[in-house]
Amino acid sequence: MDERDREVEVFEAASMYYLQDETMETIARRMGVSRSTVSRMIKQARSSGMVRIELHPPAEMGARESTVLRDLFGVQTHVVTVRPAASEVQRLEQVARVAGRLVSGWMEPETVLGIAWGNTVAAVVGQFVPRPAPGSAVVQLNGAANPTTTGIPYAGAIMEAAAGAFESTVHHFPVPAFFDFPETKLAMWRERSLAAVRDLQARTHIALFGVGAFTGSLSSQVYAAGYLDQGEISALQADGVVGDICTVLLREDGTYADITTNARASGPTPAALRRIGRRVCVVSGPAKVRPALGALRSGAVTDLVIDEPTLHVLVERLARSSSSSPVPRPHL
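Above: the chain's sequence. Below: its structure in token form.
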């Protein structure tokens, strides 16, 4: 049996299963194959993108909170239901699954997908639904090296997996996450060897990133892997810094331009992100609420993927802070 005939059989099995509500046993009898073969066909139909499953949550689920974020920040909120007893790992898996399928559905031919590495984004990339996107590209948005590692094994694996899902070309960004000196960064930005990557970053259609937080049971890579030492982290916290997006540090009120460490950061600022049409921020767990608010207030986000309990905490904190002061406009 050639490849085309196999695809036809897979489609027939998936059609009977999803559209006609036939059991696997019935499909096996009708097709003259074993139940396990039918199971493999249905799994193949899902993994190949032949079948795309969409869930439409009840209208009331997170509706009030989503409306608040839309009205204040112009954000489309994608709310993920999680079990009350779910662990942080399970919560992240469920949020990543939804985010992965959303991004996969937006990937079209010639699309440029920008990725800011991190533990959350790694989980999302693992949930991408493979689908060919001819002429597409995946570009790394921020550097990954630090004083003890090149960052290539970690960030490189994320980039390669993302590119593999869509048969895209991959473009690494071989610079540190934080330069030692702002002058070094400025000199590197003038290097022709980086010009092609930086040009592609500027032409990104979809940016995918999480938020880093100083606290939480699932440590953010920036703060757990030696990118900043404890003295730097303590000084940043004293300055009101609550986390980062794309390794650009920010406060809960969305300000970031006067944080001196950012002059050494290799990732795009919120102002640079705002030039990208779709900016997908993925948030899982209450420890990420404060940096997520900073990201929203900075204007860096168009699409927020977040679990429902964390959304409730975020909007409650937003309401408390807004009652004493107006919501800041996005900072340049």
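The chain has two domains: 3-47, 63-324.
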